[in-house]
Structures are given as structure tokens and as C-alpha cells.
Input
Amino acid sequence: MSTMTASLPDERTSQTAIRQTGKSARKPRPAGEEETLSGARFFLPKSGTASHAPELGREFSNEGEVRVEALKLGVTYFSLQEWRPVADFTGKNPELKREPVPKKGTGQERV
Output
């Protein structure tokens, strides 16, 4: 009977070790992944506006800041991306592609 009691905790320990190993085998997500959206801008809604028509209020430099402020105020926030259409005629079939428009003031504007 003592043999059964001793093997039971050992079995649980090995199962726990397997689970922990499985969890650590996952690839961690890079820090700030959401904040690296190319050309993304983040806004709180304009105060006193209805939720059915988005009106942009204060702008934030990154998603982390707007998340914290939106949590404090108990409101949602907006993420906005601006794109420029680009025609690609290099292949047999022309394609319509898009490229992000960089934020002004970052020194990345295209001329």
C-alpha cells in the first residue's frame, strides 16, 4: 500500500513538469507588438459624442498610453491607419496595392 501512495505523487509531479514544459515551449509575443502598427494613430473619442458616429478626440503617441487613459475614463479608444493606393503594372495583370502613410513630423514622409 505504501508503494501505491509513493507512486501517486511521483506521477502527479511528472505530469506537472510536462505541463510546465509545454507552457514554456510557446513562443512569447514580442513586447509592444500592437504598438508597432505601421502608421497607426490612437485616439480617445471626443467627449459628449454618441457611440454610433466615431468622432476623434485627443491623440496619443502609442497604444499603451491610450489604453491606460481609456481604462481610467471608462471609454473605448480608436486605432486609425492611413493608406495610399498604389497601382502595380509590373506583371501581366495590373494590381491595386496599398502602402501606409507615415505620421507627419517623424521624418519619414515621402516626397
The chain is about 30% helix and 25% strand.
